[in-house]
Amino acid sequence: MTTPTPNAHKGQSPAEAVRLSSRHLLGIEGMSPLEIRALLDRGNHFADHPTDGNSVALHGKTIVNLFYENSTRTRTSFELAAKRLGGSVLNIAVAGSSVKKGETLLDTATTLNAMHPDILVVRHNCSGAARLLSQHVDAAVINAGDGRHEHPTQALLDALTIQRRIGRIEGLTVAICGDIANSRVARSNIHLLSTLGAKIRLVCPPTLLPADIQHMGVEVYTDMESGIADADIVMMLRLQTERMAGTETPSQREYFNLFGLNQDKLNRAAPRALIMHPGPMNRGVEIDSAIADDVEKSLIHIQVEMGVAARMACLEAISLGAL
After folding, report:
1. Packing angle between helix 33-48 and helix 184-195, nearest 10 degrees?
2. Looking at residue 279, what DSSP letter applies?
3. How far is Cα 178 from Cα 186, in angstroms, rounded to an integer?
4. Where in the chain does DSSP place strands (E)?
5. 174 with 199: CB under 8 angstroms?
6. Which of 3, 50, 119, 148 lies 20 to 30 A from 230 at CA?
7. Phi, psi at residue 150, to the nearest 5°?
8. pLDDT computed for residue 83 by the predictor
């Protein structure tokens, strides 16, 4: 593992704005390495210049955040990213909207379409919701997490965090640990990090392993210490009990004993291993507080910071339209 370099890309010429092959950003799967690297380079630029006055890509444009699931980090970072690019933002609180009165997603799409927004950022508890919405609106759609499917901007910010700290992704061993079956973050990170040359391990109980995982080119471990041995990055995931039937895991104490990250387990990883978590964290369930708050090893707060930069890159790219 290379020596950490917090600003590994400083000194390079500024990255140019990115145009994607699709007018929507629905997932990482299917994106080319060139597109991914271009978004990361542009995100790196915005991380170094968060109030870059040269980019007014969203000036005069309206961005709607349509969140059917709560997410403070994702929603607020999209809002801040859009405003930094000169856009107008409308946050729709689903809990107080017509959705609670029985309105379907497509009815909502029709209503929003009549208001002519430029970009819809949608988060939904059903896989495929973002794609369905993209087929019924004129606006460009960004997937901010759909069910167990994907969370593309989270994977991009995670990759940006790693790249800025270590200087590369290719050749790293990344152990993704915890509730893999219910994690859209895991799926997007598997697609992105493996596309850029990282070796991916999944570490979880057999009951939290997706049925189709053998097609994703990863190594699977059901023992935590073996799974994170010599890993460069240990990425912990939240137990998503809201998506479970209640029989997938033992008690929270037993889960932490087997699959929670503490110092003893972390000692099995590479000497300079770094810790990540998409949040929100269940302290004492999937991660020990002392590990989460270790300023030398934990990248968790940096992930939040990189969320704005990565989403600025995505919003700018979507605003420019497809190639």
Report:
1. 100
2. S
3. 9
4. 62-67, 88-93, 119-124, 140-146, 173-177, 199-203, 219-221, 233-236, 274-276
5. yes
6. 148
7. -145, 160
8. 94
Give the bridge partners for 169, in sequence order: none
The Cα–Cα gap between 86 and 95 comes to: 28
Helix (H, G, I), strand (E, B) or coil at 201: strand
In this structure, are strands 173-177 and 274-276 parallel, antiparallel, or unpaired? unpaired
Q: CA 294, CA 272: separation in Å to the nearest integer? A: 13
Helix (H) and strand (E) counts for the chain? 11, 9
**Helix (H), strand (E), coil (C) string for 28-77:** CCCCCHHHHHHHHHHHHHHHHCCCCCCCCCCCCCEEEEEECCCCHHHHHH
Specify the amino acid at residue 28: I
Evaluate the omega torsion of the peptide bond into residue 278 and state whether it is cis, within 30 degrees of 0: no
Closest Cα partner for 140 from 265, 5, 318, 298?
318
Structure tokens at 67: 């969140």
| pTM, to two decimals | 0.92
Q: Give one word for 102, left, alpha or beta, with left for phi > 0 and alpha for psi -120 to 50.
A: left
C-alpha 318/C-alpha 142 separation (Å) is 8
Residues 6+ apart with CB under 8 A from 153: 25, 74, 78, 142, 143, 144, 307, 310, 311, 314
| 133-150 confidence digits (pLDDT tens) | 999 999 999 999 999 999
Contact 91, 114 (CB under 8 A): no
Residue 138: Cβ within 10 Å count? 11
